[in-house]
Amino acid sequence: MHCLPSERTFLPLPLQHATPIPSVPRGSSVAARAKERQRLRAVDRTRLLDSGDEERFDRLTRLAQQSFGVLSAVISLIGDDRQFLKSFVGPLPRNVAREFSVCDTTLQAEGGLVVPDLGSDARFRDNPFVVGPPFVRFYAGLPLRGPGGWFVGSMCILDTEPRILGLEDRTLLQCLAQEAELELNRGT
Protein backbone atom coordinates (compact mmCIF):
# COMPACT_ATOMS: atom_id res chain seq x y z
CA MET A 1 0.00 0.00 0.00
CA HIS A 2 1.32 3.42 -0.90
CA CYS A 3 0.56 6.46 1.21
CA LEU A 4 0.49 10.00 0.00
CA PRO A 5 3.75 11.85 0.64
CA SER A 6 3.96 13.40 4.06
CA GLU A 7 6.49 15.11 6.27
CA ARG A 8 5.73 12.58 8.99
CA THR A 9 8.12 9.73 9.64
CA PHE A 10 6.61 6.69 11.33
CA LEU A 11 8.46 4.29 13.54
CA PRO A 12 7.31 0.67 13.21
CA LEU A 13 4.45 -0.44 15.43
CA PRO A 14 5.19 -3.58 17.43
CA LEU A 15 3.06 -6.62 16.75
CA GLN A 16 2.67 -7.30 20.45
CA HIS A 17 2.38 -5.05 23.49
CA ALA A 18 3.91 -1.65 23.04
CA THR A 19 5.75 -0.12 25.93
CA PRO A 20 5.33 3.63 25.65
CA ILE A 21 8.08 6.02 26.57
CA PRO A 22 7.46 6.74 30.26
CA SER A 23 5.71 10.05 30.63
CA VAL A 24 6.57 12.60 33.22
CA PRO A 25 3.56 12.78 35.56
CA ARG A 26 1.60 15.92 34.81
CA GLY A 27 2.63 18.70 37.14
CA SER A 28 5.72 16.90 38.40
CA SER A 29 8.25 19.47 37.21
CA VAL A 30 8.44 22.97 35.85
CA ALA A 31 9.81 21.63 32.55
CA ALA A 32 7.02 19.05 32.22
CA ARG A 33 4.36 21.68 32.91
CA ALA A 34 5.94 24.04 30.36
CA LYS A 35 5.98 21.31 27.70
CA GLU A 36 2.36 20.43 28.42
CA ARG A 37 1.36 24.11 28.11
CA GLN A 38 3.07 24.24 24.70
CA ARG A 39 1.31 21.05 23.63
CA LEU A 40 -2.06 22.44 24.74
CA ARG A 41 -1.40 25.64 22.78
CA ALA A 42 -0.81 23.46 19.71
CA VAL A 43 -4.16 21.74 20.36
CA ASP A 44 -5.80 25.18 20.55
CA ARG A 45 -4.13 26.29 17.31
CA THR A 46 -5.86 23.47 15.43
CA ARG A 47 -9.17 25.20 16.29
CA LEU A 48 -10.76 21.74 16.29
CA LEU A 49 -11.36 21.11 19.99
CA ASP A 50 -15.14 21.09 20.53
CA SER A 51 -15.77 21.68 16.83
CA GLY A 52 -18.55 19.94 14.94
CA ASP A 53 -18.48 16.96 12.62
CA GLU A 54 -16.46 17.34 9.42
CA GLU A 55 -16.57 14.96 6.47
CA ARG A 56 -12.80 15.29 5.93
CA PHE A 57 -12.27 13.45 9.25
CA ASP A 58 -15.41 11.31 9.21
CA ARG A 59 -14.44 9.65 5.91
CA LEU A 60 -11.16 8.51 7.51
CA THR A 61 -12.80 6.99 10.59
CA ARG A 62 -15.45 5.27 8.45
CA LEU A 63 -12.73 3.87 6.19
CA ALA A 64 -10.72 2.65 9.20
CA GLN A 65 -13.73 0.99 10.83
CA GLN A 66 -14.73 -0.75 7.60
CA SER A 67 -11.18 -1.71 6.56
CA PHE A 68 -10.26 -3.28 9.89
CA GLY A 69 -13.72 -4.67 10.72
CA VAL A 70 -13.56 -3.17 14.21
CA LEU A 71 -16.20 -1.79 16.55
CA SER A 72 -14.80 1.75 16.55
CA ALA A 73 -12.36 4.08 14.84
CA VAL A 74 -11.43 7.46 16.32
CA ILE A 75 -9.59 10.68 15.56
CA SER A 76 -9.13 12.43 18.89
CA LEU A 77 -7.62 15.54 20.41
CA ILE A 78 -6.22 15.44 23.93
CA GLY A 79 -7.00 18.59 25.91
CA ASP A 80 -6.00 19.54 29.43
CA ASP A 81 -8.36 17.22 31.27
CA ARG A 82 -10.24 15.34 28.57
CA GLN A 83 -10.11 13.61 25.24
CA PHE A 84 -12.38 15.06 22.56
CA LEU A 85 -13.40 12.70 19.77
CA LYS A 86 -13.23 14.90 16.69
CA SER A 87 -14.49 12.02 14.58
CA PHE A 88 -15.60 8.55 15.58
CA VAL A 89 -17.55 5.53 14.49
CA GLY A 90 -18.98 3.28 17.17
CA PRO A 91 -20.62 3.46 20.60
CA LEU A 92 -18.34 5.99 22.30
CA PRO A 93 -18.96 9.28 24.09
CA ARG A 94 -17.68 12.46 22.37
CA ASN A 95 -15.72 13.47 25.51
CA VAL A 96 -13.73 11.17 27.80
CA ALA A 97 -11.89 12.10 30.99
CA ARG A 98 -8.19 12.16 30.14
CA GLU A 99 -7.41 9.75 32.98
CA PHE A 100 -9.50 7.06 31.20
CA SER A 101 -8.11 7.76 27.72
CA VAL A 102 -5.90 5.07 26.21
CA CYS A 103 -5.13 7.63 23.50
CA ASP A 104 -3.42 9.78 26.14
CA THR A 105 -0.89 6.96 26.60
CA THR A 106 -0.45 6.88 22.82
CA LEU A 107 0.87 10.47 22.94
CA GLN A 108 3.83 9.14 24.92
CA ALA A 109 4.59 6.45 22.32
CA GLU A 110 6.15 8.07 19.25
CA GLY A 111 5.85 4.84 17.27
CA GLY A 112 2.28 4.21 18.32
CA LEU A 113 0.61 1.92 20.80
CA VAL A 114 -0.81 -1.53 20.09
CA VAL A 115 -2.46 -3.45 22.91
CA PRO A 116 -3.80 -6.81 21.68
CA ASP A 117 -5.80 -7.35 24.91
CA LEU A 118 -6.54 -4.37 27.14
CA GLY A 119 -8.02 -6.72 29.73
CA SER A 120 -4.64 -8.42 30.17
CA ASP A 121 -2.61 -5.20 30.35
CA ALA A 122 -2.11 -3.87 33.90
CA ARG A 123 -2.24 -0.27 32.64
CA PHE A 124 -5.72 -0.62 31.19
CA ARG A 125 -7.51 -3.67 32.64
CA ASP A 126 -9.48 -1.55 35.15
CA ASN A 127 -10.40 1.15 32.62
CA PRO A 128 -14.18 1.81 32.64
CA PHE A 129 -14.34 1.25 28.87
CA VAL A 130 -12.70 -2.16 29.29
CA VAL A 131 -14.71 -3.43 32.29
CA GLY A 132 -17.94 -1.72 31.19
CA PRO A 133 -19.67 -0.75 27.96
CA PRO A 134 -18.48 -0.87 25.26
CA PHE A 135 -16.11 -3.54 26.75
CA VAL A 136 -13.12 -2.64 24.58
CA ARG A 137 -10.37 -5.28 24.43
CA PHE A 138 -8.19 -4.33 21.45
CA TYR A 139 -6.53 -0.97 20.82
CA ALA A 140 -4.12 0.27 18.15
CA GLY A 141 -3.33 3.95 17.77
CA LEU A 142 -0.82 6.43 16.43
CA PRO A 143 -0.12 9.91 17.80
CA LEU A 144 -0.93 12.81 15.49
CA ARG A 145 1.34 15.84 15.26
CA GLY A 146 -0.20 19.28 15.17
CA PRO A 147 1.23 22.79 14.91
CA GLY A 148 4.86 23.02 15.95
CA GLY A 149 5.26 19.24 15.77
CA TRP A 150 3.49 18.65 19.10
CA PHE A 151 1.39 15.52 19.58
CA VAL A 152 -2.16 16.85 19.80
CA GLY A 153 -4.19 13.67 19.50
CA SER A 154 -4.36 10.25 17.93
CA MET A 155 -5.98 8.05 15.37
CA CYS A 156 -6.97 4.67 16.72
CA ILE A 157 -9.04 1.58 16.18
CA LEU A 158 -10.78 -0.38 18.95
CA ASP A 159 -12.60 -3.68 19.12
CA THR A 160 -14.41 -5.88 21.63
CA GLU A 161 -12.25 -8.91 20.84
CA PRO A 162 -8.50 -9.26 21.43
CA ARG A 163 -6.53 -9.32 18.20
CA ILE A 164 -3.09 -8.96 16.68
CA LEU A 165 -2.29 -6.16 14.24
CA GLY A 166 -0.29 -7.58 11.33
CA LEU A 167 2.20 -5.72 9.17
CA GLU A 168 -0.26 -4.98 6.36
CA ASP A 169 -2.79 -3.61 8.86
CA ARG A 170 -0.10 -1.50 10.54
CA THR A 171 0.76 0.01 7.17
CA LEU A 172 -2.88 0.82 6.48
CA LEU A 173 -3.32 2.43 9.90
CA GLN A 174 -0.18 4.50 9.29
CA CYS A 175 -1.56 5.71 5.95
CA LEU A 176 -4.87 6.69 7.50
CA ALA A 177 -3.09 8.46 10.37
CA GLN A 178 -0.95 10.39 7.87
CA GLU A 179 -4.11 11.59 6.17
CA ALA A 180 -5.65 12.56 9.51
CA GLU A 181 -2.50 14.46 10.45
CA LEU A 182 -2.57 16.39 7.17
CA GLU A 183 -6.18 17.35 7.84
CA LEU A 184 -5.41 18.40 11.43
CA ASN A 185 -2.77 20.79 10.13
CA ARG A 186 -4.76 22.18 7.23
CA GLY A 187 -5.29 25.87 7.82
CA THR A 188 -3.15 26.17 10.97
Automatic annotation (TrEMBL):
SUPFAM superfamilies: GAF domain-like. Pfam families: GAF. Residues 54-184 form the GAF domain. This is GAF domain-containing protein.
